[in-house]
Amino acid sequence: MTTAKDLFDAMPPDRRRRLRDLARPVSLPRATRLFEEGGRADRFWIIRSGQVALDQHVPGRRPAVVETLGRDELLGWSWLFPPYLWHLGAETVGPVDAVEFDAPIIRDLCESDPVLGRAMYHYVAETVADRLHGTRTRLLALYGPQGSGGEDQDL
């Protein structure tokens, strides 16, 4: 898990209800393709149970899994930044229960409600930073000098 804080917990208490009202529960079977790299990023999810693999296109080969997300994690942030295109693909590893959000509606809400918008951008930025740190640690474990991958370093 990359970020311990749930999206709803990251919101000011008076904004949680607005966001919860826009959440749509979804149940997804195993091997459901949620989005493709380069596709239009018009939704995002908070995973409640199960796992989703993020993958990247590799010419001439199967997509390479770069990370697996689980409970209470944010799936998708490309919806928040123009040009609103997915940078990776995503597929369920097994059955997944999640809450889904319509990205254009949430973007409009972020614009019209600066308090909620600031909290949303802060939550997404924390998620991105946590995942970047995890990626750097994995890269060091694979390619760095022997012994450099096991230490928790601030890169």
Automatic annotation (TrEMBL):
<dbReference type="InterPro" id="IPR018490">
    <property type="entry name" value="cNMP-bd_dom_sf"/>
</dbReference>
<feature type="domain" description="Cyclic nucleotide-binding">
    <location>
        <begin position="7"/>
        <end position="76"/>
    </location>
</feature>
<dbReference type="InterPro" id="IPR000595">
    <property type="entry name" value="cNMP-bd_dom"/>
</dbReference>
<protein>
    <recommendedName>
        <fullName>Cyclic nucleotide-binding domain-containing protein</fullName>
    </recommendedName>
</protein>
<dbReference type="Pfam" id="PF00027">
    <property type="entry name" value="cNMP_binding"/>
</dbReference>
<dbReference type="InterPro" id="IPR014710">
    <property type="entry name" value="RmlC-like_jellyroll"/>
</dbReference>
